[in-house]
User: What shape does this take?
Amino acid sequence: MILVTGGAGYIGAHVVLELMSHGEDALILDNLCNSSRSSLERMASISGRRPVFVQGDVRNRGVLDTLFHEYSINAVIHCAGLKAVGESVREPLRYYDTNVGGSVTLCQAMKDAGVFTLVFSSSATVYGDCARMPINETCATGNPSNPYGQSKLMAENVMKSMVASDPRWSVGLLRYFNPIGAHESGKLGEAPTLTPNNLLPYLLQVASGQRPALHVFGTDYETHDGTGIRDYVHVVDLAEGHLKALQALRAQRGVHIWNFGTGQGYSVIDVVKAFERVCGITVPLSYEPRRPGDIARCWADPGKASLELGWCAHRSLERMLADAWRWQCSQTHAFDTQVG
Ligand code: NAD
Ligand code: UD1
Assistant: This one.
């Protein structure tokens, strides 16, 4: 059985679906601070299988010990974490406690239970403002501009030291670029509870009429149209990569870093135009100054994951946007129905 921490959340739920569709048993540990039980219903309705779910906190050693005792867990995919950059600036201790402290507690519990295979949800944010594009795994980690990014880097460093001290570990540090999109069924996707910070959830809310305009942060970057460039990757491609990473870790010990991106960068305006083309909706824009802490360009060299895992993201930007829009429409419809 695979323990997926944060498995009720956006990425974790897609990972759990992927595991179940490959015949793996999944056990979710999630405190539901940024998700709800409805994602469990959605997973069941897509796959016909229901993962085991335990509501609990990854920082709670007692809960972890009970899980490792009661279930036959042979690997952990650690997605639980806090991810809002602005919030991390306001509440740094909560971010370090969850993202670093939670990871330390999990690793201690794993070690004591004799479970040494771990896949960790890291982020391209650990590269900071990298001068060279595309970014490969040999690029030095940078100095992330906010506590969220720092907490991911610290958690990675904890895991690297742990592996260096004990050869029984197999750890995969997955550095996600910009995950977007939704399950093609339209039944599972990202459901932000607060005002979204990230581009796509905000764009979707503008397109569905919940917000007046998309703020384009910065039009004077050194890019082809002046707006920031990122490597957007479909969440289902990402989920498939977790399975491949797990397979590789079962065969090879040590610490392994893999970039999870497509290798293709798109600007904010590229994304907006593609969305308008694919979904047939005009997105009102409002041009704003640069967002503090943003970098101009960031895209992956995903060659190492391709070579070592046989994984590459193959879903196009158009597909990501169409899937995300299908999910958004199903949400808006559900909301209308509830209100009506
Ligand atoms: P999410 O918020 O949808 O999912 C995280 C899940 O973890 C939520 O269900 C939340 O309830 C749970 N959780 C949080 N703190 C917990 C705790 N202390 N104990 C148990 N459960 C807890 O976020 P996501 O987008 O699915 O991200 C998953 C992971 O990937 C996070 O670690 C995030 O930092 C990382 N990541 C995300 C992105 C992105 O753009 N979405 C990019 C890079 C890295
Ligand atoms: C952000 C975080 C990063 C985190 C990632 C996933 C910052 C500085 N970085 O990455 O640490 O890992 O989210 O959670 O916050 N944009 C707009 N209008 C918007 C929103 C975004 O123009 O309303 C632009 C941004 O300026 C950027 C691009 O869209 O150029 C992507 O932004 P976003 O989706 O927030 O992701 P990142 O900034 O790459």
About this structure: Residues 2-339 form a domain with the Rossmann fold fold (CATH 3.40.50.720). Residues 5-6, 8-12, 29-35, 57-59, 79-83, 98, 102, 121, 123, 176, 179 surround nicotinamide-adenine-dinucleotide (ligand 1) (CB under 6 Å).
